[in-house]
Amino acid sequence: MTHTTVPPNYHPQSHGQQVKVASGLNVLAGLYLALSSWMNGVNGGNTANGIIFGIAVMILAGTRASHKSGPWASWLDALIGIWVIVSPWVYGYAGEAWMWNAIVVGLIMVALGIWSASASATPYGMPTRMT
Q1: CA-CA distances (angstroms) from residue 38 to 21, 61, 73?
Q2: Which of 14, 18, 70, 112 has its CA 20 to 30 A from that of 44?
Q3: pLDDT digits (tens, 9 = 90+) for 1-20
Q4: pTM of the entire structure?
Q5: Is residue 33 domain-resident?
């Protein structure tokens, strides 16, 4: 039985940096969603939706950036982003200019959530394989 080791060109810090950058940017996206929903106020459902989910993304991404939660928090951020994308049709403001705000912010949240979640959750970045 042999153990493989981490390749010499592998830098475990890069995964931690990836989590911090992606999650930090997702905190900003959540802040933007909450503030823009509050300031624009398309309708009551949309305003509450943006504020609640914006704050949820800020909390989840903040705990992920500080390494207090695992990749599940980033996956949840990505799911919230999907919800933000479809919410214009649920709340009845599809076709309005504000719809594009929700779609763009939702896509950003999905991309950053997946990017953060794809960083390894193990301390060394890669599991050791036994062959």
Answers
A1: 26, 20, 24
A2: 112
A3: 566 665 555 555 567 788 89
A4: 0.78
A5: yes
Show the CA angle centred on residue 95, arms to residues 32 and 27, nearest 5°.
15
The answer to the question of residue 94 being in a domain is yes
Domain that holds residue 38: 29-117
The region that residue 129 occupies, defined by phi over 0 for left and psi between -120 and 50 for alpha, beta otherwise, is beta
Q: Into how many domains does the chain fold?
A: 1
76-99 core/surface letters (b: 16 or more CB in 10 A; e: else): bbbebbeebbebbeebebeeeebb
What pLDDT, in 10s, does the model give residues 17-70?
888 998 999 999 999 999 988 887 666 777 888 899 999 999 999 999 988 888
Q: Is 100 exposed, middle or buried (0-12, 13-18, 19+ CB in 10 A)?
A: exposed
